[in-house]
Amino acid sequence: MEDYNEERFRQQVEKALGEVARVLEEERHPQLAESVEHRYEDKYLLAEQVSGGLVEGARLVLERLGVDAARLAEVLALMGERRSGSLRLSAEERCSFEREVTRKVESKSQLVSTWRSTFGSKTKRTDKVVTTVTEYFWRYEVVWRLSAFAGNQSAASQCVLLQERSGCCELMTTSKSTPRPQVAVVPPLDLDATWLLQRLRPDAQPFGVDRDHERCHTPRRNPEVEQALDFARRLHRWARSAAAYFGGRLFPVEPEHGLDLSAIANAHTFLPLLPLFEESRSHKSSSSRSSKSGSGKSPRRSHSSSSSSSKSGSSKSPRKSHSSDKLKSPRKSHSSDKPKSPRKSESGQDQPKSPRKSGQDQPKSPRKSESGQDQPKSPRKSESSQDQPKSPRKLKSPRKLFSHKDKDKGKQEAASTSSTSLQVPGQEDASASPRSSSSTSTAQSLNLVSGSSSDRTLPAEDVASLLDEQTRSLEEQLAIMDKVFPKPSKGKLISAQETRLCVVLAHVCALCQQYADCVDYIENMLRKQLIAAIGKVVGPVEFANYMEYHYRKLYRGEFEPRLFSYAVRRPDHYPEGVLSIEAELADGSLPQPIRTVVRRREAAHPMRFAINAATDVSFFGERYLHAWMSHQFSGQSGTQLNLVARARQFSSFILLVGRISSAEVFDPKAAIIIQNKDDLKLPLMLETIPSAKEFKDAIASLSPEQQRFAKAFRGMQLESTLFGICVIQIKPQLEKLLNLPNDGLTKEIKLTQNLMELFITYQIPSDLLSYDGDQAVSLAGKLTKVKGYVQAMYDMINECKAKELAEKQQEAEYARAERLRDAEPLIELCKVKSSAPRKMMKEKRMFKSKKRAAPSRGAAAPASLARSSAPSPAPAPKPQPAVAKPAPAEPAPAEPTPSDEPSTGAAEPESSEDLAEGLVDYTQVPQQLEQQFEKLDKEGALRPTIINPGKTWRKKAQKALLAKPTESVLNKEGQKEERNQAYDLLDALSRSGCLAVDEASLHVVVAATHCFDKTLVDTVVQDNVNPIEKVERSSLIMAATVQERAPVELIKPSQVERVRTYSPELFEA
User: Fold this and answer.
1) CA-based, 20 to 30 A from 375: which of 246, 360, 548, 911?
2) Enclosing H/E stretch for 147
């Protein structure tokens, strides 16, 4: 079937409304459901009404396919209670040689020759070309069968034959090769019709939607409608394939049949499945009674419009509707009881008379009111008061209208309704009345909801009239097929039987498409109403903006999610820079920091990280645990995260990103120095792993070995969800390294820059620059001493640079001499009488002497340079014993005690049992969240999320104060270079791990994503789910785990009752 197309569907409904107006009373004005004010429950009733109409329409199709009452009972008996029932279209084709015919064919052109004889007479001669043609004639036979069977008993002896026909035609070829396969068995076309056949059982319940079912979400999304829609799709596919066999394979075989096959495509039938509502009938009834007060007329039924007094004496009678009200139509106009002439069909011919007009079993004349007009009766009060006329409907209907109110009445009416056997299509009388079955029996057989009806949906009698109109229009088209095409005969392939079947198949395709469009229209109506209520189509970006607003209303002030934006600073000092995680939204708005649930602690024990195989750096400082809640709709979050770090002028810090390996180990994956207005933008990639429920379901049927492997791997994945960001301030660590008091370098900008250059660019050992004098000296004296060390180091560097420059100059002169020596042969060839040759020879001798002297000086220069530069790397091994000496004096007031115990690469991490008191193990947080997710996330929509640094970074830097900022892209090689520089500086600042870092901050981010399978609007409309409540619950689960508090302690008192109502599992023990 085609997808729902609103424009196409509206055109079909508008066209059908014109036919509805002719079927119903003139004053009735049904409209599309969206045009009438209604309740949400009315949408359920509308879905049930069109679904019941699908059953009745399919019943009509079965009748025309040959399933009469006896055959239906036989199929149901074969099915029993638990077996399936199917329809099958099968065919066999044979092509056999009959005869060979040879004939002569004269050409249409001729050659006339004229000549004169010797005696003067004229003679004419006519010549023609005669071709001998050999033709081969073949007999093509086909036998097709339409049958029904139960279960897998598809053998011919076990099937119920519905229709069968054999036909043949003669084919001619000019070569003795068969035009069709000699024997071809067409693959059978099977339709599983169990859903329909079960609803045609005498004891079947009317169609209804179980609102209390756990999978019932909306009038469109529920098990009952889904099953009906699935059957409609299969029926549509089967009917289309069957029609394609006849129209695309069988009919083209017969040559020169002279039949108008376009009549099949032009057949138009009425489709009774329409999503129509009417204004409240109770309101119409009350207005009708007020307008008729004192007129002596009885009020009409509540669902119908009151007749105008000006029409009471009109001799024109509107179309009658066959109801069960003492055989009187509730929509019959108040006119005389004179029988009227038969109604004209659209073609202008008189329609066949209804059995009501035959004079048999005529009901008594309706009771007259005082004004001499017919007084309508309420059909609900008199449905069983008189016997019903016999209905010529060929398949006796086993269904009632509303089983909860009219069970006894339905039995009496069914008992009084006669049934006749169904003739095989193509052999029945084409003049049978298309509206021969009354609306009474149709209303009794309607497969509609058994719940309470609505005053907005069409009454059952009206639906019955629409179904009767469907029958009439279909019979009218079948009668046309009988006129246009010949009766079935052995010598014809195409007959009225095949074309009638094609018309029925085309009708069932349209009926199934109409049903799918109707239920999709109901859902589309919900979508349009939701969008109209909000004012626009909302997506993940708008939802993210709303959740920020919602969190402010939900959480208490101290637990409210906060912006991830932190200043890099010491207490009471100006910030060195800013660190933040920013979200770029798809709507193009400015990036904003994300909001996380935060828990802050002061480090009581150091953590460490390795910068090489032999060096671990320990650090103290602040610890932040962040819980971030993301969301996705249909795989789209509308958010791109970036880690942003900015430094101020003459400020610097080191940024490290990585994972938390254990309670004491931070594992950095990347590092970079941020200084002097640098602006780093590091993209963060999000990777979700299966939720706790999904993982549990996935390993349920694995072997114990496979489960252990999966659990071990998941443990690693869960720990990978801990994303760590460590910020180390450089200036406080420099003061500690140089044995300067706190704030000693705060105002020494030039000295700080020189120290950074010496450590990063030249990698000067820190022992050559540290103050090692009397601690009682003033700050100015210490700074003077350090400045002297720095100046001495720069003097040595400048001297080395000068020597390297002189060496480069000597190498340049040597290269020039080599070039002149290579040019000597050319000079000797140029002998002239001028003084130029003598000058050249003089220069040649000079360069030769320099050439002989150059090797000795060239060899000595590198040696002297090596001796002059040797002191620079020489101190590298010396600081190691020097570090051991001041170690006892390290416990100064400015240094924490734990710094006396340096970390080494050989140190083994402590086990969880040996953790010191107060040490926080962040690696346990993912496991705790996993347990809470498995316990409280019943839908399995909350998935742990791994945050990974992106592969390409962007860095803005300003090389000089007056220079413009330039942006560079850091790829793999650039990131490696930046990490090496940061590690070299850390090695110097920590004295290769001997000195702990005090001014540092660690941010641990644990993330989870609430995933919705559909878009935001479809989640609300199709699943009938409020995503706000789902994401709110997930956020509270994470916040309660991080804060180690009950959810009721985190939210405002005004929100407790609402959250308890929609997320009661959060408040369970």
Assistant:
1) 360
2) strand 122-150
Cα separation, 643 vs 949, whole angstroms: 9
**pLDDT tier at 908, thresholds 50, 70, 90:** very low
Closest CA to 1033 of 1021, 1047, 1019, 1012: 1047
Question: Counting Cβ atoms within 10 Å, is residue 226 exposed (0-12), middle (13-18) or buried (19+)?
Answer: middle
How far from 463 is each of 64, 272, 322, 763, CA to CA, in Å?
20, 8, 11, 92
Distance of alpha carbon 543 from alpha carbon 587, whole angstroms: 12
Residue 525 CA to residue 583 CA, distance in Å, equals 35
1068 confidence band (pLDDT: 50, 70, 90): confident
What is the DSSP annotation of 986-1009? Answer: HHHHTTTTTS-B-SEEEEEEEEEE
Among 244-248, 414-418, 569-573, 797-801, the least confident range:
414-418
Per residue in 10-64, pLDDT (tens digit) is 999 999 998 898 888 767 788 999 999 999 999 999 999 999 999 999 999 999 9
Both tokens of residue 223?
A: 């098990």
Mind giving me the DSSP string for 674-722? EESS-EEEEEEEEEE---HHHHHHHHTTS-HHHHHHHHHHHHHHHHHTE
Q: How far is CA 587 from CA 542, 546, 563, 643, in A?
A: 9, 14, 20, 20
241: tokens are: 């394939």
Torsion sign over Cα 837, 843, 845, 847 = negative
Phi, psi of 198 (to 5 degrees): -65, -35
Tell me if 861 sits within 8 A of 747, measured CB to CB.
no
Strand pairing report for 942-949 and 679-688: antiparallel
Q: Tell me how far CA of residue 899 lies from CA of 517, 663, 888, 894, 902, in angstroms.
A: 75, 18, 11, 11, 6
Residue among 66, 88, 922, 20 nearest 465 (CA): 20
Nearest to 995 by CA among 813, 808, 737, 782: 737
674 bridge partner residues? 653
CA gap 427, 163 in Å, rounded: 11
d(CA 523, CA 220): 6
Query: How confident is the model over 81-133, as pLDDT tens digits?
Result: 878 999 999 999 999 999 999 988 888 777 777 777 666 677 777 777 888 88
Q: pLDDT tens across 148-203, in order?
A: 999 888 787 788 999 999 999 989 998 889 999 999 999 999 999 999 999 999 88
> What pLDDT score was predicted for residue 924?
94
pLDDT tens across 380-389, in order? Answer: 333 333 333 3
* Residues 998-1007, mean pLDDT to the nearest whole number: 96
Q: Is 205:488 a contact under the CB 8 Å cutoff?
A: no
Q: Which of the 8 DSSP states describes residue 1024?
A: -
Amino acid present at 362: Q
C-alpha 141/C-alpha 229 separation (Å) is: 38
Q: What is the pLDDT of residue 153?
A: 81
Question: What is the dihedral sign for C-alpha 384, 390, 392, 396?
Answer: positive
Strand-pair partners of 641: 583, 684
Within 10 angstroms of residue 950's Cβ, the number of other Cβ atoms is: 15
